[in-house]
């Protein structure tokens, strides 16, 4: 949830829209300029619902940050606060899981930015940046709170407790080099917004991006 408290003398800035990119022992965050922002504060947590700590305070012209010295295979959670004299406005929480440079050149992205408070669209995509075919892929992840699946497309999503498994449709199961295949579902929930974590592509060493 994004919120801001206006103060006298002006309004807080708009919320940043952050795009994470996982690398080898690092994660990069990029965002376009937020309306009214004069600076940004980057925060990190080790869990989706954990305590966020400040990593960096940046001026309004700086629209990227690279977090280094991370542990490969471990998810990290970030938000960026846009600031001005009237206050601050946080971005949605995003996540990146670094991977070793010797891993496969693939990236699994789970995008939940299309959210309206009682439901959201969960878009899952697998990008093959390598030179060999990725065949018969599946994806798994867990959700932080209870939800129901309203509908899905381009694949079958199944739910066991908090764990979600995606089996892409037959025409989506092979990912040639230089291409991306995706599937999605619409979910409904009451209360706390579900946040994906612990995502993986079984049998493949792919970078993970959650936003």
SSE arrangement:
Blueprint: E1 19-22, E2 26-30, E3 39-45, E4 53-59, E5 64-68, E6 76-84, E7 87-90, E8 94-97, E9 106-115, E10 119-128, E11 134-135, E12 139-143, E13 148-153, E14 155-160, E15 163-168, E16 174-175, E17 180-188, E18 196-200, E19 207-210
Parallel strand pairs: 9-19
Antiparallel strand pairs: 1-2, 2-5, 3-4, 3-6, 6-7, 6-8, 8-19, 9-10, 10-17, 11-16, 12-15, 12-18, 13-17, 14-15
State the share of residues found in helices, binned by percent.
Answer: under 10%
Q: In oligomeric terms, what are we looking at?
A: single chain
Cα distance spanning the termini: 13 Å
**Rg from C-alpha positions?**
18 Å
CATH hierarchy, class of the largest domain: Mainly Beta
Q: Shape from CA axes?
A: globular
**Average pLDDT:** 90
Per DSSP, what share of the residues sits in E-state strands of 2 or more residues?
over 45%
The helix-and-strand class reads: mainly beta
Order of helices and strands: EEEEEEEEEEEEEEEEEEE
Number of domains: 2
Spans of 5+ residues with little confidence (pLDDT < 50)?
Answer: none
- Here the CATH topology of the largest domain equals Immunoglobulin-like
Q: Helical segment tally?
A: 0
Provide a brief overview of the structure.
The chain is mainly beta.
Structure notes:
A hairpin with a 3-residue loop joins strand 1 (19-22) and strand 2. The two termini are 13 Å apart. The chain folds into two domains: 19-95, Immunoglobulins (Immunoglobulin-like, Sandwich), CATH 2.60.40; 106-210, Immunoglobulin-like. It has strands at 19-22, 26-30, 39-45, 53-59, 64-68, 76-84, 87-90, 94-97, 106-115, 119-128, 134-135, 139-143, 148-153, 155-160, 163-168, 174-175, 180-188, 196-200, 207-210. The model has no long low-confidence stretch (mean pLDDT 90). The protein has no helices and 19 strands. The chain is an all-beta fold and 211 residues long. The strands form four sheets. Strands 3, 4, 6, 7, 8, 9, 10, 13, 17 and 19 form a ten-stranded mixed beta sheet that branches.
